[in-house]
Amino acid sequence: MADKPSTSSQPRTGGEGEIINELYFTGQGDPRHKCVAIGYHRNEPVVYKFDTVDLPQGTRTTVTYNEQFVVAFLDWALAVHLGSVIKGADREPMTDLVLPGSTETLVPPSPHPTSVQSRETLMTPIHLRARSFVSGRDGKEKFEWRRVGDKHPYGYEVGSVFAPRERRSFSRTLTNLVMSSPTQLFSLDPESRIARYDPTPRELPKIGRAYALLEYGFHEENLIRDALLALCLNRWIDWRGM
């Protein structure tokens, strides 16, 4: 088992008592190499690592959990292009983790509009690059990472078509963060954010510089695995301009 991460705080509690898990990202900012996500999941210390090597048969990223367990392999095509992902005995295209998602969202207007226009006409569409994946309970929930903003490092949002109650309650904790945080996880029916990836650098005791923070309110291990894999691919695609 991995040693307890020396971050600045234990997992936080949201407004309705739900646990908000935290993972801090360290490294040089490369989403697929020497990328370490360290923090807490359900009050337990966790460490995820992404490391990439060039092998005779191709380029492979190994994703490990708590130093001991292999979570997944990412086998890249021609070193940098999307190939396949291996989870246990299953192999699937990487593209299954970055399927087309929604194309835009509407940002509510100010509660006190100064224009004679109606509130409906003041709704401002913001086009988001969204990519979806399937995970969660029974592997049948649809989620998507949404990129917010046009300046690197980007933020993203994740959502689920079928939102369990605890995910909806966590969304209220993050309600005021939607425009200030670049990356968030959403539930889509009803739409609610269930995690956020904030690429704001910060210094942590005994850890040093963390270049991003992922906060999330769900607890399914397969969902955090798939969310991290999909986030890696989203960051890689946008970083490389693919």
Oligomer: single chain
Distance between the termini: 37 Å
Helix vs. strand class: mainly beta
Rg (C-alpha, Å): 18 Å
Largest sheet: 15 strands, antiparallel
Strand content: over 45%
SSE order in H/E notation? EEEEEEEEEEHEEEEHEEEEEH
Uncertain segments of ≥5 residues (pLDDT<50)? 105-127, 172-181
Total number of helical segments? Answer: 3
The chain-level mean pLDDT equals: 78
Give the % helix. 10-25%
Q: What's the number of extended β-strand segments?
A: 19
Broad shape: globular
Please explain how this structure is put together.
There is one protein chain. With 242 residues, the protein is mainly β. 14% of the residues lie in helices and 47% in strands. The longest helix is centred in the C-terminal third of the chain and has 20 residues, at 221-240. It is globular. Residues 105-127 and 172-181 have low confidence and may be disordered.
Task: For this entry, give a set of tags.
19 strands; globular; mainly beta; 242 residues; 15-stranded antiparallel sheet; 3 helices
What is the compact description of this entry?
By secondary structure, this protein is mainly beta.
Walk me through the topology.
Blueprint: E1 12-13, E2 19-26, E3 35-41, E4 44-55, E5 58-65, E6 69-77, E7 81-87, E8 90-93, E9 99-100, E10 104-107, H1 119-122, E11 124-127, E12 129-135, E13 141-148, E14 155-160, H2 165-173, E15 183-188, E16 191-198, E17 202-204, E18 208-210, E19 212-216, H3 221-240
Antiparallel strand pairs: 1-2, 2-3, 2-19, 3-4, 4-5, 5-6, 6-7, 7-8, 9-12, 10-11, 12-13, 13-14, 13-15, 14-16, 15-16, 16-19, 17-18
